[in-house]
């Protein structure tokens, strides 16, 4: 019997035990996916996430009337012309008194975004873009305030107070994208202050985009300079 057992062992196909290993690995992978899914659900349905959804709801409620800014049509037309010609305008094509004067659409990227929203969805597309930008601004304010105070409830209260002052400025123009970049700059600088030095490398590409979206990038430079000067 011993000889037979040894012969059986010698005749065993190499890797015969591998199915057990593969099954164990499958169970580990499944457990990992389950834990990741549970982690995601815990974040999505958490109390801080609920507070954030309240800020988004406030933006949706106020922006659904969509009060049109008089400058909006200018940005739409410039953006659509840039998209159609694939080049920046070098002379003013619209002015009556200074027609043909050299001119550069320095907010060209923001104009293109607004123009494409109008082309894709008309007034509804513009309204959706306004709600998305307003919601992004409020959520970033919420994140920044939470980082600063270390408490999501206090961060929500600060963001809610800021919403009262920010809401009148929520008009669909490239400056709203500038608001997003400004708050992102504050968040990056706060992370850098906390020792996450790698976060600072987000600023160069972000400023590259910001400069082509809206002139408020100058304020971002001032914020960085003040932070540096403050040590």
Low-confidence stretches: none
Q: How many strands?
A: 0
pLDDT averaged residue by residue: 84
Secondary-structure element series: HHHHHHHHH
In angstroms, what is the radius of gyration?
A: 27 Å
Q: Separation of termini?
A: 82 Å
Spatial shape:
globular
The major pleated sheet works out as: none
Strand content: under 5%
Q: Which structural class matches the secondary elements?
A: mainly alpha
Helix count, DSSP H or I runs of 4 or more residues: 9
Percentage of residues in helical conformation: over 70%
SSE diagram, text form:
Elements: H1 2-10, H2 18-44, H3 47-63, H4 72-85, H5 108-149, H6 152-166, H7 175-193, H8 203-211, H9 217-229
Helix pairs in contact: 3-5, 3-6, 4-5, 5-6, 5-7, 7-8, 7-9
Search tags:
single chain, 231 residues, mainly alpha, 9 helices, 0% strand, globular
Task: Describe what you observe in this structure.
The chain has 9 helices and no strands. The protein is mainly α and 231 residues long. It is globular, with a radius of gyration of 27 Å. 21% of the residues are buried.
């Amino acid at each position: 019997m011993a000889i037979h057992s040894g012969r059986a062992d010698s005749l065993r196909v190499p890797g015969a035990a591998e199915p057990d290993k593969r099954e164990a690995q499958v169970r580990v992978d499944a457990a990992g996916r389950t834990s990741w899914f549970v982690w995601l659900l815990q974040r999505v349905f958490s109390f801080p996430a609920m507070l954030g959804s309240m800020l988004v709801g406030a933006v949706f409620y106020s922006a659904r009337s969509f009060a049109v800014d008089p400058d909006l049509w200018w940005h739409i037309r410039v953006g659509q012309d840039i998209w159609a010609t694939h080049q920046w305008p070098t002379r003013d094509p619209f002015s009556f008194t200074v027609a043909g004067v050299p001119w550069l659409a320095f907010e060209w990227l923001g104009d293109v975004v607004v123009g494409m929203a109008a082309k894709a969805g008309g007034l509804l597309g513009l309204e959706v873009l306004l709600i998305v930008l307003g919601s992004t601004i409020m959520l970033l304010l919420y994140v920044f305030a939470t980082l600063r105070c270390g408490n999501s409830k206090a961060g929500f209260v600060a963001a809610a107070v800021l919403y009262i002052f920010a809401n009148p400025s929520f008009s669909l123009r490239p400056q709203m994208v500038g608001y997003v970049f400004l708050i992102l700059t504050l968040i990056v600088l706060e992370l850098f202050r906390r020792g996450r030095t790698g976060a600072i490398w987000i600023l160069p590409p972000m400023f590259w985009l910001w400069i082509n979206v809206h002139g408020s990038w100058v304020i971002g430079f001032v914020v960085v300079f003040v932070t540096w000067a403050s040590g």
